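Subject: for your reference before the review

Hello V.,

The reviewers asked for a structural picture of the protein, and I figured it would be easier to keep everything in one thread rather than splitting it across files. Below is the amino acid sequence we used in the manuscript, unchanged from the supplementary table.
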Amino acid sequence: MPTENERKYVLDLDNEEEMIKHLIKLDVKSNTIHQGYLALNKGMSLRIRESVDKNKAEYLLTFKQNVPDRTIEIEKKIKEKRDFDDLWVQAVNKHEKIRFDYIE
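And here is what came back from the structure prediction:
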């Protein structure tokens, strides 16, 4: 599996609206993500995610396992929204975020 390299920034909530307006003005690609966890254990997680980009939704199931020197991540598409919805009821630690893909 390839190693993922990305930078993540958490925005100060006091500046969130201003930052979002600025990024939208720059026409930066964004998507809204709803995610929750079906299993959590030390160094391991099983996550479900709905990612909405311009009213098109994608549903994903992701397994992550920490091993020495890296994290293995295996991601599979959930083909049916119904399957995602049934799993969503069982999920814990649910949250929503907006992801902006800004390439310098």
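For the response letter, the relevant points are probably these. The beta strands are 29-41, 44-53, 56-67, 70-77, 92-101. The chain has a mean pLDDT of 85.

Happy to draft the paragraph if you're swamped.

O.
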